[in-house]
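assembly run, all chains below
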Amino acid sequence: MGRYVVRRLLQMIPVFIGATLLIFLMVNVMGDPIAGLCGERECDPATAARLEQEFGLDKPVWQQYLTYMGNLFTGDFGTAFNGQEVTELMATAFPVTIRLTLIAILFEIVIGVALGVVTGLRRGRPVDTGVLLLTLVVISVPTFVTGLLLQLLLGVKWGWIRPSVSSEAPFDELILPGLVLASVSLAYVTRLTRTSIAENRRSDYVRTAIAKGLPRRRVVVRHLLRNSLIPVVTFIGADIGFLMGGAIVTERIFNIHGVGYQLYQGILRQNTQTVVGFVTVLVLVFLVANLVVDLLYAVLDPRIRYV
Amino acid sequence: MSDRHEEPEAAIAGTSMGGAMDLGVDEAETLEKTPAGPDGAGPEDRPRSLWSDAWRDLRRNPVFIVSALVILFLVFISLWPSAITSGSPLKCDLSKAQEGSQPGHPFGFDGQGCDVYTRTVYGARTSVAVGVLATLGVAVLGSVLGALAGFFGGLSDSVLSRITDVFFAIPVVLGGLVLLSVITSNTVWPVIGFIVLLGWPQISRIARGAVITAKHNDYVQAARALGASNSRLLLRHIAPNAVAPVIVVATIALGTYIALEATLSYLGVGLKPPSVSWGIDISSASPYIRNAPHALLWPSGALAITVLAFIMLGDAVRDALDPKLR
Amino acid sequence: MRTTTHARWAVCAMALALATAGCGGGGDSGDSEAVLSASWGDPQNPLEPSNTNEVQGGKVLDMIFRGLKRYDPETGEAKDMLAESIETDDSQNFTITVKDGWTFSNGEKVTAQSFVDAWNYGASLRNNQRNAYFFGYIEGYDQVHPEEGEQTADTMSGLKVTGDRTFTVKLTQKFSTFPDTLGYAAFAPLPRAFFDDHDAWVKKPVGNGPYLVDSYTRGSQMALRKWDDYPGDDKAENGGVDLKVYTDNNTAYTDLLAGNLDLVDDVPAAQLKNVKNDLGDRYLNTPAGIIQTLAFPFYDPAWNTEDAKKVRQGLSMAIDRKQITDTIFQKTRTPATDWTSPVLGEDGGFQDGLCGEFCEFKPDEAKKLIDEAGGLPGGKVTITFNADTGSHREWVNAVCNSINNALDNERACTANPVGTFADFRNQITDRKMTGPFRAGWQMDYPLIQNFLQPLYYTNASSNDGKWSNQEFDDLVNRANQETDTAKAVDVFQQAEEVVRDNMAAIPLWYQNGSAGWSDRLSNVKLNPFSVPVYNEIKVS
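ok done. output:
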């Protein structure tokens, strides 16, 4: 187990280098970002050259990458085009996004798994059909619309919440955005849990457990659910990264200045430093989340062992 | 742990998983032909048993019949949209913008004054093609790579999983702007290819997890002890037990891929105008939800029905393949 | 989603707003200590005056700086602010005297040196200032900002401090309206603190305007407070302004409805239809100095022929400007009939109807004209625009539909989105356009010169289509040398007629500024740059 974790941690190094190189090249392929900095007019050549020099864009790509990686190890993530340190951007964006992601994940686990268990045990009943219809709504109506409508209803019409999130972004203001962010993933988690539960409830060990006279609750939670969670855990583990980096729409609607927004802006403005910096951190999150998921496999299914 | 080893093993190759989610037109053929397929995993002793059982189940299952009919209808209007419309989706009159339903225009008009009914019908071709083909590609690529990683473990798992990690790290917006902006072709293929390229890691993870669980089952150990080859173990013993989560994720992903096409088009790198698709219409109607909800409702409704049909089909196929439910 | 619902939202918003304002009385009795909150966008560049080339940064500079001139918030006329006098005999050598008694908010006196240092800083190549070219007319600019290579001087030889409050400016050529350009933010004075501790200054700018920066959190909020000792007569009539960064103007609008925000200066297009219901008369829609055009790639031989001119005129006549501005923009834009802007006024050079019948919607004649010219080059046109900023997609689609309907061909015109603004600009500068493309112009200062020279003069910085016409260039040169303003405007208009006769760009519409506010506020106005006149807003 310990050796396995060490091995996995070591594997992060090549992935880290590969991913940053890939992203670095991709942003570079997009072309010259300087033209976008001068508004609706041509940058004068002298200023453009100066700016290129300042952002290190006048050097060959491999040299830019090496310089960047070198700086990275000294903790210097570079500067955004507006003169702000990327580390400063990260320091404001990541805490907010982490809170938002936590809430979304919590919704996925609590509501998603609960609905999945209920529908899995009551397949074909009205509750199952109702949840299926909700799933369809969530998939076919864009997050933008659901977010906007909820914001107008709860924020303006009923006045239960603030329509936008303040810059401190405390947990309570992030509940609705978290729900909106989690909505599509909720559909996945619910359906995954439902299918697993439905598949496993006829298996021998459940029959045995029921035959032993165990209380229904214990059978469902200890035997049925535990054995049905592997696909769900896999999905949620992979989802963390998406939720953190891809909350562009949700962050826009609720005016949250988080990772999704910064990353999106960085990409549109072709700011290598911002994009690579943020993606680098996200890659680390992915890697850790995947490791945790793999370790959870062994917890959920004792037959799985790591050596 | 499971009693499936008593049953004749289902022979679902990685490829036929995709087949099960195909348009449904050739459902019968796909399902019946696969056992005799080139993978050599067809049941020798009792031919057709699981598949004919499954097919018998499916034929009697009203859910399957309804969803297959819906999918057939979608395919039909994708191929011949003019069969049920007379207008052109590109004929727009701005003076009618956002007007509601009126004679000859049952769904009303969108923000540009185009007929919503005509556009919804014509949008089916792009959206169904993107949804189905991208899902198919993602499911095939993802489940093959995921299954291999999960089954063999060790070095191959490490290599495959870490490649998955790298792909996971690419933000969709960045990938789209970089990979799609260089392509000038105005067909759905680049978009489908792009979705497959960035979508497979998700299915791959799910398939890997499912295979890791399934390979520890007693009957797999028993088959291994009896000297079954790796391919036989993977295809006949493990795959049938691991396919359910893949079907679930793939059927939901189908809907999100149709929406993703719109996102890409909005970034200016997906389908170029004057392409018509549900996703594009949904995106352009979204900001006007307060004034013209009908322009959003119809393409969203069409998308919902499509997703519903495939979810139900996936459910029915999964049930038919699960011996415990028999 | 019907009207009744809107009304209820509106009532609710009003109730909330009333509640927060304690149901305070009428508008005019403003509380000069009350602070209002307003929507803002994150400025793209550091907030240095000569580095800010977009509206959001411009808003702040307008509150914390006062230059030699200031454009009247209503008429746009350039009036003396810090300038006691600007004298010239030959439109090339200017003597500027700064008023006495002005200080920066940190107590430092505003002197002639404050201006000269600021301008030299802005022009110097090593400071990477985006607006450096504004100083391009001053003698010695090419030494501090050479086209290529290292700069050979730190200061411009054309600027000389001659006294505590006087300095002289020598230009490289005659430029009669030069004093009127001095209201632009790039010409603002800078305190010593800017040069001594630049990082600290950028984190918390210090200026000489009616407001001072109380706190600034990059990317989320800036709190500006009234500067009590402000020496000017345009003192702030409120206690201050909290600028809040919104990444989407729709959220800002929703916050306004919910009573969390007092002022939105950019009502989202999708909500324009609801504004009357939501806000009643707390909404403003006034002309701003912005014009939207379609530019053409004149470097492409297909577009640089006599026939192509007819095609451009035909395309212009195929666009139903009124229908599009009414429907897509809900009358927040006005069909263009010349190449300038109504905010200039008749005296300033705006001439309603200069474009004539070529800017009127005449589908049949449009088709005839294009057919005569041998059809569209290559049989179709694509209108290129960038998809990431502004909502250009809708009007481009509408323009294309209009052209298609006029030409009776569903595929004559198609929209061609480009992913990022940078990529769009690169395609323009690399001369890769093959058909018409989006061009927009927001004036730097309200002069007809600013609407013509940067856009159509040979090789000018915003001449995106690379249009070049000797007659036009000569007229502009003549106009710049004209000492009499009225005569200069007249010559500029002759130049504009050359633009018309060649249809160098298709004028589409003049853009308005729009604003909505809570009922705590009164006396809300937008200046010709579509920026709210914050210091005149009264809060109750």
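Residues 333 and 511 of chain C are 5 Å apart (CA to CA).

Residues 1-27 of chain C have pLDDT under 50 and may be disordered.

not gonna interpret more than that til we talk
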